[in-house]
Amino acid sequence: MRYFIRRFLFFLLTLWTAVTLNFIIPRLEPGDPAEDIVRRLAGQNKPIDPAQLHAIRLMLGIPGGNIFQQYIDYLNLLFHGQFGVSYTYFPYPVTTLIGQSIMWTVGLVLTTNIIGFIAGNLLGAFAAWKRNSIFDSFVSVGLSFVGTLPYMWIALVLLFIFAFQLQLLPMGGGFSETSTRQMSWGYTLDIMQHALLPALSILITGPIGWIMGMRNNMVQTLREDYTRLAIAKGLKPWKVALLYSARNAILPNVTGFAMSLGGIMGGVVLVESIFNYPGMGRLFFEAVGNRDYPLMQTILLFTIVGMLLANLLADFVVGLLDPRVRKGKN
Amino acid sequence: MALLEVENLDVTYATKQRPPLFAVRNVNFELNAGEFVGLVGESGSGKSTLGNAILKLLLPPGRITAGSVRFEGKELTTLPDEELRQMRWRDFSTVFQSSMNSLNPVTRIEAQFQDVMAEKSDLSNSQIHDRIGELLQMVKIDPSFMRYYPHELSGGMKQRVALALALALKPKLVILDEPTTGLDVLVQKEIMHNLRTLQREQGFAVLLISHDLGTVLEVSDRVLVMYAGEMVEDAPTHGMLKHPIHPYTHGLLGSYADPAAEEVEISYIPGRPPDLTRVPKACPYAPRCPEAIPLCRQAKPQLLPMWDGKAACHVAQMQWNDEQHNHTRHSEEGPKLLDAAFSEATSHKAMKLEGEEVLRVENVSKTYQRRAGFKTTSMNAVNDVSFNLRSGKVTGLVGQSGSGKTTIARMITGTEYPTSGAIWFGETRVDKLKGRGIHNYRKHVQYVFQDPFSALNPVHTIQYLLMRPLMNYGKLNAAQARQKVRELLETVGLTPAEQFETKMAHQLSGGQRQRVVVARALAPDPDIIIADEPISMLDVSIRAEILQLLDKLVRERKIAMLYITHDLLSARLLSDEILVLNQGHVVEQGAAKTVIRQPTNEYTQLLLEAIPRLERPDHVRASYVPTAEPTKVQVDASPVSEE
């Protein structure tokens, strides 16, 4: 129990650090966002009208007061879920924009990553159990080749074949322009059709790391004395494979999964841009392109919090799976 | 019909990349119900492979290539997997070597009993729970420990749990593979005793695999000896003690002696086992055997009955045949080990504690602080210890694990600072040294590590490894260093040096590696060598050889040595002075012979008792102790007349 409380306290500490950094970093950047906007509205070389500048400041809600007051206001606003207004999609608040796209990303990316993780570990365990079989050679040699293919390339090839040549699936987007956007079977099917290609492009390369990792770990744990003892005990083969060997081999992969979540955001930007998918990745891409600071900052904050939550969850899962980490060094 | 019959068994490790290794060849033996049999051999002799082959647990690429293993008449080598699986644990079970690893680290102790008992017995869950409690009590562990995870138990407890687990379904045969290796001497003794008692009570048969002939002889009814993949002797324990038939067994027995005797001597077997990728056509032991005759190098001896056991040896066989005709015994039985023996008499030990003082340890204590949350607990690892190291003398530091031996060594090398007290190296306060001072000081203090297998960097040649300290401390250039490396290799007996300098550590045997480690310690020409259990990881038959080397170097080069060990026998042989350490306190200190022959402390006596005592009749000893009267043998006490 102490392990879990400790992990949670660490989580709170990192969360506070992240939130504070999110406050400090923009303030260290040179330039004034209000000035920037006025200049863009008025044109590069025109003089800036102080009244206009003031109006823009009021409109955006740019904070005044000393830095501590600003920090307290910032925390207060965060606490009430107010992240400001997007510059690009003015006057929509950032939260509305994120609310619209977050479910698309979570639905696509999270699901495929979890499926990839589970499938990868199962396939890896199977390859290790049947080591030196044809399946195993395919896994160790074949997949390490496929794994080197960049995944946007795979995405483009999939688009070319299934959407352009065969015209079986849509070229992009999250749903058809003509759809009713009401909850119905037709709409669900439509979403599925649009999600299929992006999901496939993630799922072709995604599980390979897990398969290889699981296979190699399990080849090790199969040689460990506890696995051999389980065989000597005459337990059913599937029990030996799953409860003794795979059970121990999966531990590094669970930690690895938590670590890999940090890299997902980059992948999301890529895949959503290629498939023109209405998720967080594309939103972030646009925000960067338009220097939409509030939007950018909020997406980053959401990403960080998401990562931290995922890590906390992974820590808990590792703690549940491996009694040795719970004890610490005592 | 015997419980287990092994006939003409061959096991081969064959991979595509390397030539096949013929690990076990033509092995025959039987094991009766309720019998306690020991299987002894050095590392690489094929004893564990044989154990795994019987259990059909060989790791690939190991494979049974010929012969048969029958359990109660049932042929195991061809039995379908599913039938074999049904037999496992109910008919035969096992305890593995490393207590660290044989329990699943992620499940509770209870679950590891539960899964096999639920599947293989008719007991209900609550009955199983009660039975687990009983089993744990049987190995003297409180039943409440079944809720624990393996990492929460000590090494000795884990091995007891593994033993209880092996007995869970009342099997007819238990195969134990080095069950106590790596455990503390006192714990080892206790577990073996526990095992023997349980075996007598419950009547299961045991095959105890070990490299330690002493331990095996103490508990077994009968002992099998393997050498280079072949069975060389199979004899009852009492017979083997009185009269080992095979010269190899005789050689192994030579490594044991009573440290508290007036004269102590142990011997070693020169040479190393043959390469098993080429099957020896003749007796595999012939190249190392002091008794070998031309026939031994031409034909392979068969395992034949002689005296009260069986042996595969031409010389013994001829003696046996002679004896059958003449009804007399010759005292020449067994090898003559005069040249290869190491004793106090042949060591260069001086009688009095003289010699120049090199290092003085004054009232040194070390306390470790451990912080958990806001609580701080402290542990006294070393408590008020004082002693001197003198040039050309060996100081033995004896105690079981956790007694503070290594902490003292670390403080002397300056890797750890004492909490109080002082360490003087001449005029230098070692415990006050920092940075550059430490570096300069370490030139004078070198370390010989316990495990020669991990003490040498596996990616470099021996030459490189030995050049490093020479260039680092000796300020030699590469060419000079290379020259010096040869001298060093010759000094530690690795000749010709050219053959060894280009090798990697993994191409050498354990004894050769330990010699390289010693050479590395000698490289900066140190005043002090700290040898931390330098022989405990080596095969029994070559331990005396390394002791002899250390002895020679210390005396010739006037090095002061701190010899750290748990083994009183080697401490007695090598040391001038002995300190017995118990939980950080020096409980006994004095001249080696006095401390061990007249121990005043209970703890020293306990350590002495933990040493396997082999009661050998005088005439065996007489055949190789030079100082003793050559006795003309009481023939009536020989095993022949006992038959």
UniProtKB/TrEMBL annotation, chain A:
Membrane-spanning parts: 102-129, 141-164, 191-213, 254-275, 295-321
Major site of localization recorded for this protein: membrane
Pfam families linked to this entry: BPD_transp_1 (PF00528)
Keyword set, alphabetical order: Cell membrane, Membrane, Transmembrane, Transmembrane helix, Transport
All copies of domain ABC transmembrane type-1, residue ranges: 102-314
Keyword Flavoprotein belongs to the record: no
Family matches, as InterPro entries: MetI-like, MetI-like_sf
Membrane topology note: Multi-pass membrane protein
Keyword Metal-binding: no
Compartments reported by the entry: Cell membrane
Coiled coil, from the record: none
Domain of life: Bacteria
GO terms under cellular component: plasma membrane
Example GO BP: transmembrane transport
Family recorded in the similarity comment: Belongs to the binding-protein-dependent transport system permease family.
Name the record gives this protein: Peptide ABC transporter permease
Organism: Dictyobacter vulcani
UniProtKB/TrEMBL annotation, chain B:
Keywords: ATP-binding, Cell membrane, Ion transport, Membrane, Nickel, Nickel transport, Nucleotide-binding, Translocase, Transport
Catalytic activity: Ni(2+)(out) + ATP + H2O = Ni(2+)(in) + ADP + phosphate + H(+)
Origin: domain of life: Bacteria
Database matches in InterPro entries: AAA+_ATPase (IPR003593), ABC_Ni/Peptide_Import (IPR050388), ABC_transporter-like_ATP-bd (IPR003439), ABC_transporter-like_CS (IPR017871), Oligopep_ABC_C (IPR013563), P-loop_NTPase (IPR027417)
GO MF annotation: an example: ABC-type nickel transporter activity
Record GO biological process: peptide transport
Keyword hit for Transport: yes
PROSITE patterns for this protein: ABC_TRANSPORTER_1, ABC_TRANSPORTER_2
Pfam families: ABC_tran, oligo_HPY
Location of the ABC transporter domain: 6-253, 359-608
Membrane topology: Peripheral membrane protein
Stretches that traverse the bilayer: none
Cellular component aspect of the GO annotation: plasma membrane
EC number: 7.2.2.11
Subunit architecture: The complex is composed of two ATP-binding proteins (NikD and NikE), two transmembrane proteins (NikB and NikC) and a solute-binding protein (NikA).
PANTHER family reported in the protein's UniProt record: NICKEL ABC TRANSPORTER, ATP-BINDING PROTEIN, OLIGOPEPTIDE TRANSPORT ATP-BINDING PROTEIN APPD
Sequence similarity: Belongs to the ABC transporter superfamily.
NCBIfam families: oligo_HPY, PRK10419.1, PRK11308.1, PRK13648.1
This protein's name: Nickel import system ATP-binding protein NikD
Species assigned in the record: Dictyobacter vulcani
